[in-house]
């Protein structure tokens, strides 16, 4: 059985036996928070447990490295929608140690894409179109650097209120320990 068939078979039983009922909630985050975190598989269950988050407590946005790569990209759009449409009052940017984006080498990614059938012509066309793949497919030297950059972009975004707390943290992907990088309350004059 292939993966999609396995998922659909399980889903049918899940719905028929009403297992979804324990997850019912609204679209508004109960803890009025947004979490931008990494897509790392080790964080799927660990991060919510380590933060005492239940289903419905937070809007969780995941990408490679918990990075805001562009102030007007899809991650920022999601954060802005969460703040203005879904009543979120705080932002948490949470990276993790041993992140795959640490030291990510664009040449390696491009070589692997070519090995899977992406032609040199496509790579060249993208370059001629103004897309700098070497910059776009580059990570960071240390996870702290990535968190600080993302926090700074969010905190200084022209479409977000200046008093919106934006926190930066790094998680240990084995123990779930959270290390504070930046407390958002300090930036708005509040006591943390």
TrEMBL record:
Catalytic activity: hydrogencarbonate + H(+) = CO2 + H2O
Cited Pfam families: Pro_CA
Annotated InterPro entries: Carbonic_anhydrase, Carbonic_anhydrase_sf
Entry keyword set: Metal-binding, Zinc
Protein name: carbonic anhydrase
Protein family according to the UniProt entry: Belongs to the beta-class carbonic anhydrase family.
Domain of life: Bacteria
Source organism of the structure: Paenibacillus germinis
UniProt enzyme class: lyase
Cofactor: Zn(2+)
